[in-house]
Design brief:
The chain is mainly alpha-helical. The chain has one domain: Growth Hormone, Chain: A. It is built from 5 helices and no strands. The protein has helices at 2-41, 45-73, 75-94, 99-127, 132-141. The longest helix is centred in the first third of the chain and has 40 residues, at 2-41. The N and C termini lie far apart (36 Å).
Amino acid sequence: MNILKKNNYIILTIAIFLGFLMFGFSENIKGTAIPKVQSEFIINEMQIGILLSLNSLGYLLACTYSGWLSRKIGLKITNILCFAIMALSGILIYFSKSFLMFSGSYFIMYLGNGMLEISLGILSAKIFSKNTGTMMNLSHFFMV
């Protein structure tokens, strides 16, 4: 039984670190992608501002309901849902032909990002019972 617990801890730790790494990539690529998005869709700075505002709104919305959702359906399903939403948004972004579709896809990505941030934080707090601060700081380092 002890080996099973240790294996579960290792799998969950890897999931947390990979989740934060995925979050970091999706968050940090935004700065380098904005000029490309601007030239691809031929949009001005105001439209970029609206796009980024919608992203923040999606993130804030997801952060509001993610704690409730994890209590309601469980952390495992919430985390799977986060990764599924992120994958779906990536596919939608790839197939975006218009700025409106791209904005909607980007909004969905930030819904996934917000849910991922909260659910991974809850999961981290539950499994890192020893050296909690160190492990949480180390996992958040992967977001950079």
